[in-house]
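INFO  loader      accepted 1 record
INFO  loader      residues=203
INFO  predictor   begin
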Amino acid sequence: MDKSDALAVMERHGWLSRRPMRFREEVIRRSRLKYFTAGSSLYDAGDGLSGMFGLISGQMLVRLPPADSIISIANPGQWLGEATCFMREPRWVSLTAGSKLHVLHLSQADFEEMAQDAENCRNFAVNTAESLAEAVTVIGNLTQPDSEVRVAQRLLTFMGVHREARFEALAVSQSDLATMCGLSRQTLSKVLSGLVERGIIAL
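INFO  predictor   done
INFO  writer      dumping tokens
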């Protein structure tokens, strides 16, 4: 894995692929390529500023304190962390490797330097807006009264049906998925069994 591989991913998938070429190339030029093993932490809630992380391969899990519950799964091409970079506040969530993964890391110093340009600042803000749109989708999903529809919608979101990149499998436990769907472990098990029986998913 090298910068050319990273560029290929970021040109095809996610927020950065939809930004102007000059901005995209500048972000990648300034970013460092990093590797994380499954289960390792990129940052924890409460940590100080450490810039943005863009996923090239693997699955990143977004966890919310205090229960450390998984609230989202990042697909290749997704970038996280710019909101607290903008606000210069400690991290709100934790970011862990759900599998072995490669990321691009844009440091806080490079973010600050780029954000001095108004157009760059707007480009970074688009990523925040896209994350907000996903959060609204999640909230809408949790208000869905039918548990089967709720699970199906959540799985489709995690599998990337609304994005350019899709996973073939999810690196989360059924207990974590139950929490993300606002269901008991027992209810989730029944829903998943029904989806398996109809050949819709495999466990």
